[in-house]
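We give this protein:

***
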Amino acid sequence: MPETVKDLESKGLLKEDQGSRVIFVPGHELPLMIVKSDGAFTYDTSDMTALKHRVTEEKGDWLIYVVDSGQGKHFQLIYAASKLAGYYDPEKVRVDHVGFGVVLGPDKKRLKTRSGDSVKLKDLLEEGLERSMAKLIEKGRDKVLTPEEMKKAQEALAYGCIKYADLMHHRINDYVFSFDKMLEDRGNTAVYLLYSLTRIRSIIRTAQVTTEALTKATNETKLGLQHEKELRLAKCAARYPDVIEHVLDDLCPHTLCEYVYELCVTFSEFYDNCYCIEKTGTEEVVTVHMDRILLCKATATVLENCFHIIGLETVSKM
């Protein structure tokens, strides 16, 4: 930081203001305080120094600051002052402030414990594990899943529901934290999304199609897309690259969450109207519609990629 101060002084950017040394940035009412009257440095000093280091030393070409929305004006000033000082060129380096809102309790006030302390993530995760296990037992999954499968499903649901609930809302908006809503198996929740992928994987397993056969079919089988639900699903899955580009542009992950939910709903409509597998009365598979299995596989692949980005751990059974 002393080097930053010397550099700013040499460029004539530091001005005396009531004993402090500050930078007045054109277009901004308040200055940046670089050195306090007692000689101490400030957050302004460290933030400008860090930006300079990341660009000049670490050769960063895209810096993303994930800090609450209340710091928006501060970062606008930091970026403007850094540009003024020549620490970064907006034409060569992208710098973004990814602000976010506040997590609220049921009373719609900032989420806190009963004693008024901030809620620790560790405590939320532990409660999530307890609630997800209770949900699985309520659904009778302990009767059909092995202990190992139950543990994987429990963790996927607990951690997934908390992550997804945080990302599905526009990041600058406040939202009410509710485990009851997060663990619903209907609607736009992590539980529904994870169930949807598990369902697709089950369909492919039931078809008894090997990986080799799927690869061969990918090169040789033409997708019919004769049914409107088939066409709609294919179009929805094909939008994946555009959605990613959109998210990269505005850095709002809720757009990806909305897309994933739409894809799951679209798949459900497809599966309800289009046979992928035909069975006898004894559940023996007699016909596999390979073009539709390929559509299932493509949908699963897109969902897996989206879940990886969002941070949802997938399971084969739940």
User: Anything to note?
Assistant: The radius of gyration is 26 Å. The chain has a mean pLDDT of 91. Strands lie at 15-17, 20-23, 32-35, 62-66, 94-98, 103-104, 175-176, 277-279, 285-288.
